[in-house]
Amino acid sequence: MPDTQITPKSSSIWRKLSPKCANRSCDRKTWLQAFGPRNPGLNVEGDWYCCAECFERTVREKIADLMNSQVAPAKPHTSRVPLGLLLLQRGILSAEQLKIALNLHRATESNFGEVVQQLGFATQEQVTAAVASQWACPVFPLGDRRLDVQVRVPRRFMELYRMLPVHYSESERRLLIGFVSSVQHQILYTIGHITSCTPIPCFITAREYELHLHPPSALLVGEDELVFEQIVDAVELARITTSYVVQLVADRIRLGICREYLWIRIWGKEREMDLLFRVRSS
Fold first, then answer.
1. What is the DSSP string of 222-271?
2. 147 and 166 Cβ atoms separated by less than 8 Å
3. 20 in a structural domain
C-alpha cells in the first residue's frame, strides 16, 4: 500500500480549513475551535483568534506595551516674537497698552491673550490671528455654521485640548483640527493613528469653540464614547476591551495613548465605539 502524501494543493486547503490562532502562545486544537458550534472565533484586523481568551491575551500585551512606553513630555512652544510684541507690530496695541497688559499679566499670571481682551485692547479674532501666526498655522473662520465632519474625535479630548474637528477632505483624507490657544502635537499623532487620516492643525476663536461644544450638538454628543476614570491595570483593561469586541462583533480595533488616557476605538458590525481609560494621574 503506497504511503499517503500531502500535496501542496491539499496542504493549502488544510490551512484554510484549519486556521492558525493569531495568539502565538495558543496551544488549542484550532480546527476544533474554528468549526465548533460554540466558538466560531474572532476575526480582528485580518487576524483570526480561536476564542475570546486568546484575543484578550494578545490585546493585553499591546495595552501593557502602550502603558509602559515612556512618552516624552511636550516641549513648551516658544515663538521668536512674543504675543505682546506681535500685537504691537500689527498696530493692535500701543506701547502704553502693552505695558499695562504686561503688568496685569505678570500680577495675575493669566493668559496674555485673555488679558488684552479683558482690557478691551484687542478682539478675540485679532488675538487668535496673532497666536496662529506664532504657530505658523492658518485661522479657520468657523463662524456659527453647522459642523459637518465625518471623522469622530472623542469629546473628552476636545474638552481636554480645547480643540474641534472643523473640516474633512475625504479625497485627501485630511482632517483639520482647530485649536483655541496651542497646538498639541501628541493628540494630532494619536488621531492620525486611530483614524488613518492626516490631521492638520489650525486655529479657531474661543467663542467658536464654545458655540459648537456647549451645548453639544447632535454631531458632537459622545453617545459612542465610554470614559473610565478609575485607573486599572492592563489585565482589567484587556478584559473590558474584549467584552466590547465580542458584544459589538468587531472586525477592527486601534489603540493609542495620549497624556493620561488610553484610547481604544472598536469598529463593530453596526457601529463604532470609543473606550477611553485613564491610565495616568493628571
1. -TTEEEE-S---HHHHHHHHHHHHHHTT-SEEEEEEETTEEEEEEE-SS-
2. yes
3. no
User: Which among 221, 215, 273 is positioned nearest to 246, based on CA atoms?
Assistant: 273
Residue 279 CA to residue 63 CA, distance in Å, equals 10
130 within a domain of the structure (yes/no):
yes
- Cβ-contact 202, 137 below 8 angstroms: yes
Longest dimension (CA), the chain: 106
Q: What's the whole-model pTM score?
A: 0.82
Residue 126 lies in a domain: yes
Number of domains in the chain: 1
Concatenated DSSP letters of 171-240:
TTTEEEEEESS---HHHHHHHHHHH--EEEEEE--HHHHHHHHTTTPTTT--TTEEEE-S---HHHHHHH
Q: What pLDDT, on a 0 to 100 scale, did the predictor assign at position 77? A: 65
Composition of the chain by helix, strand, coil, percent to 5: 40, 20, 40
Domain membership flag for residue 112? yes
Identity of the amino acid at 63: I
Phi, psi of 209 (to 5 degrees): -60, -50
DSSP summary character for residue 139: B
Closest CA to 151 of 140, 164, 139, 138: 164
End-to-end CA distance of the chain: 74
Phi-psi group of 90: left, alpha or beta (phi > 0 → left; psi -120 to 50 → alpha; rest → beta): alpha
Domain that holds residue 87: 83-134
Mean pLDDT, consecutive 10-residue segments, the chain of 282 residues?
50 54 74 50 78 89 84 64 93 96 93 95 96 95 82 93 94 95 94 95 95 63 82 94 93 90 93 93 71
Q: Locate 134 and state its grid cell.
A: 506664532
Q: Burial, 114: exposed, middle or buried (Cβ in 10 Å; 0-12, 13-18, 19+)?
A: middle
Q: Please enumerate in sequence order all residues whose Cβ is within 8 A of that of 123, keeping only pairs 6 or more positions apart, or say none.
A: 117
